[in-house]
Specification:
Elements lengths: L1 E6 L2 E4 L4 E9 L5 E7 L6 E6 L6 E3 L7 E6 L4 E6 L8 E8 L14 E2 L3 E6 L1
Parallel strand pairs: 2-11
Antiparallel strand pairs: 1-3, 3-8, 4-5, 4-9, 5-6, 7-8, 9-10, 9-11
Length: 124
């Protein structure tokens, strides 16, 4: 079992930046890590994902060019660097881990473990 804890959320003005962290603990495995977000009244949506080696990355169209995902396996930590933030980025951000696929997947149902989320609020 893997436990995930997000941190780094907060309040920022439009155009600003935040870096989210996701610390993982538990059984070591070759997992893909993903970031998802959910705004009030909306479904949880895919944001970004990274393979266990860090060699493959995928981003939602809405964040391409603005967000970067990275991981430090020695620290069991995954990061989401968010730049040029927009009010529409406001949401609870969740990190997730999946172990069942050899490729990056983007569906919420594909991921096996989830953190509790961290709030990101972007003001205009």
């Amino acid at each position: 079992q893997v436990h995930l804890v997000e941190s780094g959320g907060g309040l920022v003005q439009a155009g600003g930046s935040l870096r989210l962290s996701c610390a993982a603990s538990g059984t070591t495995t070759y997992y893909t890590m993903g970031w998802f977000r959910q705004a009030p009244g909306k479904e949880r949506e895919f944001v970004a994902a990274i393979s266990w080696s860090g060699g493959s990355r995928q981003f939602a169209d809405s964040v391409k060019g603005r967000f970067t995902i990275s991981r430090d396996n020695a620290k069991n930590t995954v990061y989401l660097q968010m730049n040029s933030l927009k009010p529409e980025d406001t949401a609870v951000y969740y990190c997730a881990a999946e172990t069942n696929h050899a490729i990056i997947v983007v569906g919420t149902g594909d991921y096996d473990y989830w953190g509790q989320g961290t709030q990101v609020t972007v003001s205009s």
